[in-house]
Amino acid sequence: MGHPSIFEHIEKNRSGVARRKNRSAVTLMVAVCLSMTVIVIWEAWSSRQYHLHDKEVAMSNLAQTLASQAQSSIKQADTLLFGLVDRLENEGVGPGQLDRLQRLLSAQRNELSQIHGLFVYDENGRWIVNSNGAEVGGANNSDREYFIYHRDHPDLGPHIGPSIKSRSSGEWIMTVSRRVNHPDGRFAGVALATIYLNHFLQLYDSIDMGDNGVINLIADDASIIVRRPFNEADIGTSLAKSALFTRLLPTAGSGTASTSSIIDDVERVIGYRRVEGYPLIVFAALDKAEVLAGWRRQSLLSAGVVLLLLGFSGVLGYRLIKLMKQQDLARIELLGTQDKLLELNRNLELLALEDALTGLANRRQFDLFIHSEMGRARRNETGLALLMIDVDHFKAFNDQYGHLAGDECLRSISAIIIDNIKRPGDLAARFGGEEFAVVLPGTDYVGAFLVAENIRRAVEAADLEHSESPEGRVTVSVGVCGYNPALQAQTEDLIGAADKALYVAKTSGRNMSVIAN
């Protein structure tokens, strides 16, 4: 009689052992899967870092080579200028010297292929002599940046100006110039060498930079002198807010990094280096996505193989366990989500009629309110007025101070509007953007104009700084309209009349209140 109990005990032990074995097997499988996954991820990450480091080294070497090339090209031109200035200051520019000087400049220009031209201007910017044989006539370059710089700065060193289009040939050129002095040290003019931008572009275009690579020659003031790929609109663009000038150059004159471009927002692997002896920086960069394209293909292939091997051994069992857990979690989450949805519905009912930024009524509440008040005014033959308020030069304010400051400005003006409408029946709303509307039941256009002026003066008195406004502070313009049932059958008619008055206020100088005719 006792045997069945023994067998049951054995079966229970076997079941327990089986469960333990299953758990051990599952644990071992999970451990193997995790180990292989970690190894593959580590190898992929190491390979990625190697690819990036390799390209950073390549860009650093390229930047160094291009910096040497730029330094050599400019040095050759500057050496000519140094000798030319010495000749001018010692021998002058008398009639006897001009012919010899003309021949000398032409010969020197022909010796260097990168030189577009050599020029000499007197203290008033008039052409004295040039290497290109161009007719001097009444030509004057006193408005050029390099001329103004040397006229206003006594230093005798070379000056690299921004890239410009030549007035003699219409080609894009870089300017290298030196100041010429009278014997007493007064400004006597400028000696100028111009270098073809194409001299740099031909070299830059010969380098394989991929489909989206970039090479820049940049001035110390952060303006682009030449950029590959070449686009005239990029010449002179400021990179002062780029990572190169805000983060990298302040700490080192050369180096590598990964950063996004402020011109086209492409993330690139970059190398940069200052040009020795001149206020220039060479910047070479490869598209990071292109750099990692080969690594990505290799990593995806490795990951696919590993996933295939792991899939047959562990996915089915893992998914079953995971699905059971997900069902329990789903039930819990559904209950929690139900409570959250109920709470969200209550909040949405409150927010549906309120502007999130200012706390004023939103456009929907404004439309319902003015429609209701126009009907009441029509039935009871009572007054109704509408103010349309617009912040003056608000786009310029946003551009100067940023959108966060713009939001704070709108909140401040909203608070001022609320402070100046005291009656419970009045409604202030954000009509859209920087425009506000105030509905004044039981008020004619005279009373509405007084309210408008109170708001306008209060905004002016708040003295919110606005450097881009002629007033130097934030102001508003207000359009005022009293409701006339005979002329304004629809809400659009009343809004349109107030908006026209606002337009008159804006076009008449701003910072004023105007009553609709």
From TrEMBL:
The chain positions of domain GGDEF read 382-517
Membrane-spanning ranges: 24-45, 300-321
**EC assignment:** 2.7.7.65
Keywords (alphabetical) are:
Membrane, Transmembrane, Transmembrane helix
**Highest taxon of source:** Bacteria
EC primary class: transferase
Catalytic activity as recorded in UniProt: 2 GTP = 3',3'-c-di-GMP + 2 diphosphate
What SMART domains does the annotation carry?
GGDEF
Q: Which Pfam families match?
A: dCache_1_like, GGDEF
Question: CDD domains, per this entry?
Answer: GGDEF, PDC1_DGC_like, PDC2_DGC_like
PROSITE patterns to which the protein is assigned, alphabetical: GGDEF
Q: Does the keyword Transmembrane apply?
A: yes
Q: Which InterPro entries match?
A: Diguanylate_Cyclase, GGDEF_dom, His-kinase-like_sensor, Nucleotide_cyclase, Rev_trsase/Diguanyl_cyclase
What protein am I looking at?
Answer: diguanylate cyclase
Which organism does this sequence originate in?
Pseudomonas mohnii
